[in-house]
Specification:
The chain is mostly helical. The chain is built from 4 helices and 2 strands. Strands 1-2 form a two-stranded antiparallel sheet. The mean pLDDT is 89.
């Protein structure tokens, strides 16, 4: 994976009328929390992409890299 070219604004959105306002991948109804919970539960990225075909590999990898970068900032 390389550095994300996509920002949080590019990747995610929250709208009151979409999944009760949960943070989702932009243009989908896929909650970001569910995506990361599935990763933590052991699903591979390939499995997730099959389960959520509305999310491209580029967007999924960018989300993972953003989370890792934000985690690093929080730990510092």
């Amino acid at each position: 994976m390389k550095q994300p070219l996509l920002t949080e604004h590019d990747l995610f959105e929250s709208k009151p009328d979409v999944v009760s306002g949960a943070l989702v991948f932009k243009g989908t109804r896929v909650p970001v929390e569910a995506f990361f919970e599935n990763l933590a539960a052991g699903l591979s990225l390939d499995d997730l992409l099959r389960n959520y075909p509305g999310i491209s590999r580029e967007r999924a990898e960018a989300a993972i890299l953003l989370a890792a970068r934000n985690f690093g900032r929080a730990a510092a």
